[in-house]
Amino acid sequence: MTAVNTAGWRPEMGPAQHPDHEDAPRPTNSGDRALMLEEALIFELGRFGSTGVDIDDAEFEPMGALAGFLRKAAPALPGLTEPETVRHYTRLSRQNYAIDLGPFPLGSCTMKHNPRLNEKVARMAGFADIHPLQPVQTVQGGLKVINELAHWLITLTGMHGVAMTPKAGAHGELCGVLCIKAAITARGEDRTVMLVPESAHGTNPATAAFAGFAIENIPATAEGRVDLEALKARLGPDVAGVMITNPNTCGLFERDMKAISDAVHAAGGYVYCDGANFNAIVGKVRPGDLGVDAMHINLHKTFSTPHGGGGPGSGPVVLSKALCPYGPIPFTELFEDGHLTLVDEETGGARQPHSFGRMAAFHGQMGMFTRALTYMLSHGADGLRQVAEDAVLNANYVLRSLDGELDAPFGASGPCMHEALFSDDNLPEGFSTLDIAKGLIDEGFHPMTVYFPLVVHGAMLIEPTETESKAGLDRFISSLRSLARRAKAGDTSLKSAPHFAPRRRLDETQAARKPVLAWRGDSAA
Amino acid sequence: MPLYYTQDHEWIDVDGDTGTVGITDYAQGQLGDITFVELPEAGSTLKKGDAPCVVDSVKAASDVYAPVSGTVTEANAALEGEPELVNTDPEQGGWLFRLTLSDTSELDGLMDRVAYDEFVAGL
Predict the structure, then answer these.
(1) ipTM of predicted assembly, 2 dp
(2) Is residue A1 pLDDT above 50, yes or no?
(3) pTM exceeds 0.80 for this model
(4) Nearest to A508 among B30, B58, B83 (CB)
(5) Going by DSSP bridges, is the β-strand pair A214-218/A331-334 parallel, antiparallel, or unpaired?
(6) Range of the structural domain that residue A89 is part of
């Protein structure tokens, strides 16, 4: 193990470590602990009358239809000066955890490093300062980025076309499912059922239900994959299609994918693949070769654009030849002379007559397109393949390093893909997955995904991504191993972790049952 | 009044053609602290296997399936303010809804307490 601060010295240690010692540290007058700053709510900090903005004392004459709504009393907004405001949010930001601080092993979320080169390119004036309503001849560079990225997404997935406008994963799912619906309607058929395996992402059934389909579950096999025979048995003239996550949420590749697609197609249905886990197979597998009809790609996962508070998602959807005619507008079109145009309602009537419509007002997440294309071009084909290989290698290293410490329910199903799944089976009575997750906070790591997927009891889903070095993984594994051993030794202090975070363990039950979501003045304190 | 159990951990207490449905003590233990219960409307008709009810806990949201077919006559209004009743008293005060059975022969496929306890022991 590679440890930092091997001497183990901490500022609060020393002879005065014991609270009864005469030199024991006293609580500070301010409540802050050196550089660990406490912070009040902005409402508690602010005063009426303070402001960071100079506004003239002007008399406003209420007029028109809104005059009756004139406030009688001042709104209860906190007044802060500019430095107070800046310090408030900076202090809060220091209590945050981010991918720029350490590993973020949140399974299913792919919290990988966001290369700074992406940021540099996205900030170039020609990309950052353009507007979606500019005449197309003035934004040819921007359109070329969209077109180029579209080309590589189609190439990497082996598909026929791509809808670039969806704004995130679930939005992309909806786009794909609406394409399926439009294709079925165009055939004059009425297929109302969408099949969703247990091992699929939780958003899949929600998307299909939102699009008006009835959802039916397909069970997983004991090894954590789709039960092909159960799926075949359910296919019929009422089934619109199937939504499969591959690699799935058990961290396994669906080996029967081609057989599933063939069976669904033979029964007249379409195959939606949730591509959220494409980072595990990019450069290795082309979903088009597996018979997929639609798949969204999370640029904010596979292609490293920031997310989780750091930026918006982006979920382009690649489409098969069968579904392309129904895809949304607008999209870019490249002419032989090299100029690009945008196919939309005005220009595209004859070009895309069966389109189901729009997913977004404009072209999609332009800022994410420049970042994703930068990532692709800076990695190249060999680099992208290595991304998938390293992500899978790292996950298997975590999986096997914890053999005998935590129970891996599908450990016998062979190597995992990009995420390692554990259950709470090996934890002794009285200790839960939640205790391990909270213990990880004390250890200085963001916890893994817990209690998902539901097919595993007390699930812990760990996705290290290709970002982590072996040394970084060893530190994480060492912490996890020590937590599992503390639980087995009956160390009850683990049950009240975290002990070193700005706040101790919160009462999640009360927070859900009786949430306090708005400041109610002093009475709420 | 005879009590029946399903493999999905619902119980149904039957008196004539009226049934009271809830989830078992084992189920509430697996779900953890219940934070919200979405109840069916009185008058809605259910087929055996429909999911008229959703139980949210700190860990997950889970469907509750109708053990038999019938028409809902009443939902447990107390759960709106006190969802924790499902944790503290799952097989009595934490009942979810009542229904009029449309086909009492559907009860034949359900387990009794002894069979259910054996089923749970095997999980």
Answers:
(1) 0.77
(2) no
(3) yes
(4) B58
(5) unpaired
(6) 41-49+78-98
